[in-house]
Amino acid sequence: MSPSNHHNRRKHHILPPMLTRPSKCRTICDLPVELLDMIISYLESDDWGVWSCSLACRYLRSVSIDRYFSKSLVAWHLHNVDHLFSFLHANPRISAKIRNFTLGGATRDVGKGCSLLITTDDTIVLRLLPLLPHLESIELRTFAYGQPQQSVPPPSPQRDTPGPFHLRHLSFGSGYYGCPPRSSSVSGLFRILSLFTIDHLHGESRECHLDLGTPLDQSYLYRPLQLKYPLLRGYGSANSKHALMILNSFTESIEPGHLERVEIDCRAVSEVSAIRKLLARNGNSLKSLKVDG
């Protein structure tokens, strides 16, 4: 090889691959550490999934984050919510798009099932709401609900009570299949519900493993529940006591005059009496009732 050719080869540089189209927007390869952490946490037990995610990030370099996100955001298997809040704070354009939000805590395999690792409460929900200004629907999955630490003080000119925030749909209790019981506070759950006016509530009443020794304390609620259409589902009769506690808590906490439609799964004789009490107290405005045995 002549010196001149050798010199020319040394000066020849391989150019990096060009994007399919130039863009000043951040791309999927530039996802914040917080979001990447959530993705990897969700896929941590799935080597093929992690590989697929990495491959997608390489081939979708020109897809901007703002264009990639739709109106729905699903954050499952969270070990803590700090990464989620950091991501939403840093990306207000994405946060403003989100209408439907699914939030789920981490679980751990324990042989025949899984155990819940994360407890949630109203403080987490209150931190979330200002970040999602157009939120219409929330689904809460695989959480234990913490016992409130203090009662809600009575309204006063010096202190604003948060809410009520309007939701078209709120769901709780799903995703627990195969999880051994971990006691949740019914007051903690209903304190979250009392932040909202809810058009349609979907509850898996038998999947919420509640602390049966601590009934609802209404002093923890921000206000009576303003609820139009509760759909309370349950499968089997193993957790009838938990379903009964949910029914009694709704009877005590719903503000009369709001219920328009009710659908309930009834799996035990004791629940018939609870449904009767619910309707006697809150059934004046009812337009439709469905009870499945």
UniProtKB/TrEMBL annotation:
**Which part of the chain is the F-box domain?**
28-69
Q: Name one Pfam family in it.
A: F-box-like
Database matches in SUPFAM superfamilies: F-box domain
Q: Where is the signal peptide?
A: none
Q: Source organism's superkingdom?
A: Eukaryota
Per its UniProt record, what InterPro entries does this chain match? F-box-like_dom_sf, F-box_dom
Q: Which CDD domains does UniProt cross-reference here? A: F-box_SF (cd09917)
Mind telling me what this protein is named? F-box domain-containing protein
Organism whose genome encodes this protein: Dichomitus squalens
